Amino acid sequence: MRNALGMIETMSVPLGIQSGDAMLKAAGVELVASQAACAGKYLVIVEGEVAAVRASVEAGKASAGSALVDSLVIPGIHEQVAPAIGATAEAENVNALGIMESYSMCAAVQAADAAVKAAAINLIEVRLGRGLGGKAFVIFTGEVAAVRAAVEAAEGLEEVQGMLGASTVIPSPHKKIIESIC
Known about the structure:
Blueprint: E1 4-10, H1 13-26, E2 30-37, E3 41-48, H2 50-64, E4 68-75, H3 81-85, E5 96-102, H4 105-118, E6 121-128, E7 136-142, H5 144-155, E8 164-171, H6 175-181
Antiparallel strand pairs: 1-3, 1-4, 2-3, 5-7, 5-8, 6-7
């Protein structure tokens, strides 16, 4: 059973790829993503059993050395997070949009998981550093009150303090805005 997600974020593409290799060799995990991001960053995301993901991330951190920017292990990851990272989620019946920006790709994933666990929302996308100068953002939908509660829960998460930028809740977003982000 894949119930944990792990991630490393490096400031070096070669060391990021090397770290991804070390992560996959260290434990029985599945690769979710391994890709370059803006500003010369590289990220590797794995999923699997909690102990395997922890071992994998530790191996990646050791391999990255001083190029490590951030890392995470989220046991009990919500099932909506991985599809949102892959931008495969769809928006239906949008009453409100929640958008959160972060300075760390790991912080965006942590914020997305906290948001979807806190309220009845649907994650649309967790954009990790592509075309963003190394930043990341999370977009989700739901009823206005749920979207507000999700933003508040994510902003209150200790692990992301100092790493979140602007956040907003847009009640009744215009149809063209919804089309532009989906």
